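> Could you send the Phosphate-selective porin prediction when you get a chance?

Sure thing. Input:
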Amino acid sequence: MVSLVLVAMLTRPVKKMPMIKKGSAMYRKISAHVILVFSILLWCPFVAVAEDSLEEIRALVNAQERQLNELKSRLAQLESAAAGSVAEPVAVGVNSPDSNPASAAMAWAGASPQFSKPESESRFRFRGKFQTELMTTSSDVETTDYGRASEIRRVRLGAQGAFSPSLDYVAELDFSGDKIGYEDIFIRYRMSDHTAIRLGHHEASVSLDDETSDSNHSFLERSLHNSLSLGRSVGLGFETQGERWSLNAGLFGQSQLDTEVGESEGWKAAARLMWTPLHSSNHTWHLGAASYYVSLGEEDYRVSARPESHQLAALFDTGEHAANDVKYVGLEAAFQHHSLLFQAEFGEQTVDYTQLDESRFVTGYAQAAWLISGEQRNYERSHGKFGGVVPATSWGEGGQGAVELALRSSYMDLVSGDISGGKGATLSVGLNWYPKSFLRLSANWVHFDIDNSLEVLPQGYAAHKGDAFAIRSQVTW
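Output:
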């Protein structure tokens, strides 16, 4: 445009102009216009170059932001999968390059959308799982058939998140039974990076087997040892940890499943102390000891267990009897070496019956799991447990997923004093395939051999021996 103006000025007819004196007002005015024109001619190329450079820089920044958001989203997926459905709140949420920083951001971690507000550091995510199962059996006891069945093993829906960095929550319900069941429903206040208290309906931590999420076990069901655990109830929990140790303790009321109107409720106190003498990227030593005391109030006490297959009958069963209190002590150990994980536990429970002799019940198990595809479970030191399996390469994305082989032997003795609730062992073999971090297909074979099951006489026999084979599909988010 400036060039056209100059050409027009140069080609127009030239008229005779009067002489302009140097220093006059007209002279100064013309000089100012000439300087302005030359300034425009000089700066135009630089302005164009600057605009081009600014566009290039803006495009580069946007590309870098997109890559960073992709990496953050992938990291959130890995962290969520490594933690499993557990149930601990996970910090997630990624702002897109064009989003309003003051608005909530969403990111996908595994199969669940997750939301966050960076300015308040609050976050929210849906959580849940469903498991479907088929089971068949064979019997070594003449005329005894342990059945064949299919079931929806678990359907759980809930949410977890945080109001601030120091206050988080979990709320989850179980829809798989005839009644809606309560799972984790609590709020937790983090007093520091190493100490927290939680209030609500949650687990009393008394064993490694029980603390590990049922989504992350190497087998379809927990060991016989788990029948001595306290399960979930309303209470106040306390957790803290040092450099190589951690402590979980709590005071709880009666289980919601046992609550009766007009009945005096009992109470429970539990503590679990864990020591980690070695914890590195490839090796973990875990040792622990646990104890609890239960004052029963007006309720009866019963110990029962299915032989590590949920659709079998409770072939171990003490029956219900009035009791004053229950005491328990247990020991646990685990060692992880790369993709190999070994763990074992032993526990003894003492029951002070009101009208029967005092009884001592003993349980224990030992197991080994090998991730054939080379992955390694993460270890959460604050709760002394191992997390889920995250495939190194996911199926359908250039990989085949993760494969795990597991072996376990369990033992239970419920024959003591006036009680004959069964004495025996199980041997279980498990095979798991994890196509993706939130998908799992499993197969278990369980052999059981039990005698002295006289208290309830399930199916009319005091001795039971047979095999169960089950397959399960699982999705978690």
